[in-house]
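hey can u check if this looks right to u? its 113 residues, i copy pasted from the old doc so theres a chance i mangled smth
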Amino acid sequence: MAAEPGVEGADWAREIVIATDHPAFDGHFPGEPIMPGVAQIGLVLDALRQASGRHLQIVAIPSLRWRSAVRPGDWLNLHVRGPSPEGRLSFELRRGSEVVSHGTLAVGAPGPP
């Protein structure tokens, strides 16, 4: 793990343990719970906010790929690179050596209401 997010070109990583009772699993799907993709993006955004100490929001998702289902109790490794000069971050979520999802997010501070 290198510099904190928000430093141009920085690389950083974080481990995320998916709680077995995470609310994203409610009704998705009974007997075969998988985390919805939007909840995976939420995990990435929460990690970015915690690591930077700033309130960030996603302003665009230029690319995104779902590769494997996330299940209750999974241990994931999040790796983030960026931001680029354009404010884009690339991320990859892995379960061991398996890529779960990856993509590019454009993030920024929230604007006025």
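Residues 57 and 103 are 16 Å apart (CA to CA).
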